[in-house]
Amino acid sequence: MSPHGKPVFRRFVPACLLLVGLLALLLVSCSGEQKKQADGPSTRDIKASEVKDAVPRAEPLARYGNHSPYEVFGKKYTVMQSSRGYHERGVASWYGSKFHGRRTSSGEPYDMHLATAAHKSLPLPTYAEVTNLDNGRKVIVKINDRGPFKSGRLIDLSYGAALRLGMISTGTARVDVRVIDVDSDAGGQTIAVAGIDTENDAGSIGKTWLQAGAYGRREGAEELARQLEQANVSPVSIHNTDQLFRVWLGPYVSSIELESVIARVIELGFERPHRVKH
User: Fold this and answer.
1) Mind listing the pLDDT tens digit for each residue in 242-273?
2) 3-state DSSP call for residue 49?
3) What are the start-end ranges of the H helices in 158-276?
4) What does the pLDDT look like over 49-96, one tens digit per residue?
5) Which one of 58, 96, 98, 228 counts the least CB within 10 Å of its CB?
């Protein structure tokens, strides 16, 4: 009782209740941090040169990720029956640490350090050559995931693939995406260049070229051609197809000569050239 005869209600909170309240606040705080977790680069000190091209090979369709149509955020998407001949340009983005270790749509674990990618409609898996149209850099990726589902985006690249293309800091880049059709009869990877008839050009049977680079600007192609010629790698030619300036070596009719040139180009520090038929 107070001196005035009125009861006093003490504001007393047991210590256990205070602890419960603090724990609840911590849980809410942690939950909020998880929800706000931002995507980002690798914590490893990895260089672009350490990210290797995906190696195209014939594979069956993935057990998961090819159901069609499928729906995301209320929008339906249809998976293409075949990736053969696919060639498109658009905007690429990249995804990294937030998804590292999680399963991709195809069921494979996502490794942000490998050259992989996500696409909304290409069959899983599909192999494609992606070229940054702003700097001419390229990478071969294995498409094993679905996305990106943001309007205006064509492809979502792994952190490693984006590192190869020099687009980590910009976040997005204008790219050329061209599916690689693997020709098992050629004894290795053969890229069928869009716009060139490889089936009906009887005069070119047995002739094989090597593509050393592809650029959105002719200057880039000319610089690469000059460097190769100075290193005594010849013959070198530039072909303008699909608004890309492609640097070709050859033609070669001997597999021994072909492999010798590939080894020489790699030895000089250039990226491994890819076979093309003309």
Assistant:
1) 778 889 998 888 777 778 788 888 878 888 88
2) helix
3) 159-165, 218-230, 255-267
4) 999 999 988 888 998 999 999 999 999 999 998 888 888 999 999 998
5) 58
Domain with 81, as residue range(s), is: 48-179
Mean per-residue pLDDT over the chain, rounded? 80
- Output helix, strand, coil percentages for the chain, rounded to the nearest 5: 25, 25, 50
Q: Determine phi and psi for 261, rounding to 5 degrees.
A: -65, -40
Do β-strands 116-118 and 155-158 pair in parallel, antiparallel, or remain unpaired?
antiparallel
State how far the Cα of 163 lies from the Cα of 211, in Å rounded to an integer: 22
170 and 78 housed in the same domain: yes
Please state the pTM of the whole predicted model: 0.56
* CA distance from start to end of the chain: 102
22 in a structural domain: no
Tally the domains of the chain. 2
Task: Report yes or no on 231 lying in a domain.
Answer: yes
Element (H, E) at 157: strand 155-158
